[in-house]
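haha ok so turns out i had the wrong file open the whole time. this is the CORRECT one, sorry everyone. sequence first:
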Amino acid sequence: MRKCLSIILLIFVPVLCFSQYLEKTPSGGLVDWTDQLIREVGIGAPNPNLPVGAQRASAIEAAKRVALRNLLERVQGMNITSEVTVQDYMVVSDVIYNRVEGAVRNFRVIDTRYKSDGSVEVEVEVPLSGIFGSVLPDYIPLGAQAPGYGGEPTSAVYTGLIVDSRGLGLRPALAPKIVDQNGMEVYGTGSVSRDYALQIGVVGYEKDLNRARANERVTNNPLVVKAVEVTGTHNTDIVISNQEANMIRASAQNLNYLQQCKVMLILD
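then structure:
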């Protein structure tokens, strides 16, 4: 099996920026869990052995290689589920490794900064949907329709779901779950459309309730519930009360907002 790239285990530092949920890294990159993007930077020096006219181009290419390496390191440490990271999937087979690497290599350069010493700093960006899609085919089953819930359907018309998880230590993931107090799944990859999950992700994250309400993902009348605890090895899954779980299940019988991934999670 291919020897995987060595991982530098980094502790992401959450920061407040217009209430979006961002995780900054020591190398200057960040994961934007609200807009579902990952960004990294790379710095390259000109090759003095090349002609002067070719040195700037060589510095740009060197910076891109460093940015790519930084992206791979960040991506490998990301949580997919509460039990598994991207790295865990990558070591399963060369196929998954190549998919993730291919998704990361498909980065977009969003800024190039030229330094006075001749070095170049390049900032690159990759959508989280590309990372999610690279591990999705074999290892994360997606449902085509919302689960068939029992009970009486409600007449309330909701356009999305917001779960307020502040104060509980919730950590972001690509494919988290919402469960009731009995451990029964209320929302997860088994209840979403593959197309929507790949386009916008399974959930969105915010730090502010009002901004979450205004997010186009869940407007205009989202159902808001409060989490009672978080669970899972990486603290990425949410437990809600049985009463609120039944409310969601009842509304899901008439509406497809869960299938369309219209779910926002609020965290610190």
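Residues 13-138 form one domain.
again sry for the mixup
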